[in-house]
Amino acid sequence: MRPLHRQLLQYPTRPAIHNNVRRRAFFSGFWGSSMSNRGIDGATVWPATRTGAAEADESGVWQNTIAAADYALEEATRIHRGVQSNLKLMQEVRALREELRKAHAEADRYRGMHARVVVSMRQLEEEHAVEVGRLQTENEMLLVRHRVYKLLAEHYGMAALRFDTPTFCEHRDRVLQHVLFQRRKGVALEDIRFRDIAFLLL
User: Fold this and answer.
1) Same structural domain for residues 103 and 169?
2) Same domain membership, residue 159 and residue 83
3) What does the pLDDT look like over 84-107, one tens digit per residue?
4) In this structure, is residue 54 part of a structural domain?
5) 102 and 148 share one domain
6) Which of 133, 142, 147, 190 has the fewest CB atoms within 10 Å, i.e. the most exposed one?
7) How many CB atoms neighbour CB 151 within 10 A?
8) Segments forming the whole domain that contains residue 21
9) What distance in Å separates the CA atoms of residue 65 and residue 52, rounded to the nearest whole number?
10) pTM here?
11) How many domains does the chain have?
C-alpha cells in the first residue's frame, strides 16, 4: 500500500477541485473578454463609456457660460460708460445751473442798484427842480426889489423930495405892491416907469 500522505497528494479533495474550477472559469472569462475587445488588426477597442459624453456636455455648458459672461461683461462695460457719461452730463448741468444762478443773482444785484440809482436820480431831479424854483423866485424878487428901488430913486430925484425913512418905507411898500400886480398881469419890469408910480407917492 502507498503511504497515506502520498494518497492525499495524488487525489485532491473535493474542495480543492472546486477552487481549481473557479480559477479556470475566472481566467477563461478574463482572457475571453480581453480577446473579444480586440479589433480586426488586433488593436484593443475599449468600450465606450458615458464619461466622454458627460465631458462633452459639460464642455458645451462651460462654453455657453463663458459666452454669457463675456456678453454680460460687455453690457456691464457699456452701462458703466453710459453711467459715466450721464454723470458727466449731470455735473455739466449742475455747473451751468450754478452759473445761471450766479448770473441771476448778479442781474438782481444790478437791477437793485439800478432801481436805487433811478430813485436817487428822481429825488435829485425833484430837489433840483425845487431848488431851481426857489432860486428863480428869489431872483425874481431881487429883480423886483431892484426895480422898486430904482423907480423910487428916479422919482425922489425928479421930485426933489426930502428923504425920510418912515415915509420912504411906506412909499417902497406901495411901489412893491404895484410892481407885483403889474408882473401878475404880465407886464415886464422894464416897462414900468417912474411916471407910473407918481400917483402912489402923493
Assistant:
1) yes
2) yes
3) 999 999 999 999 999 999 999 999
4) no
5) yes
6) 190
7) 26
8) 1-39
9) 20
10) 0.44
11) 2
Give the Cα separation of 109 and 122 in Å (integer): 20
Residues with Cβ < 8 Å from 152, sequence gap 6 or more?
A: 168, 171, 172, 175, 197
Could you tell me which residues come within 8 angstroms of residue 176 by beta carbon, excluding any fewer than 6 positions away?
144, 145, 148
Let me know whether 110 and 170 are in one domain.
Answer: yes
Using CA atoms, how far apart are residues 173 and 51, in angstroms rounded to an integer? 143
Q: Which helix (H) or strand (E) holds 6?
A: helix 4-10
Does residue 139 share a domain with residue 87? Answer: yes
Q: Do residue 24 and residue 81 come from a single domain?
A: no
Q: Find the Cα–Cα–Cα–Cα dihedral 80, 81, 85, 86, rounded to 10°.
A: -30
Contact assessment for residue 189 and residue 150, using Cβ atoms and an 8 Å cutoff: no
More confident residue, 29 or 162: 162
Residue 141 CA to residue 176 CA, distance in Å, equals: 10
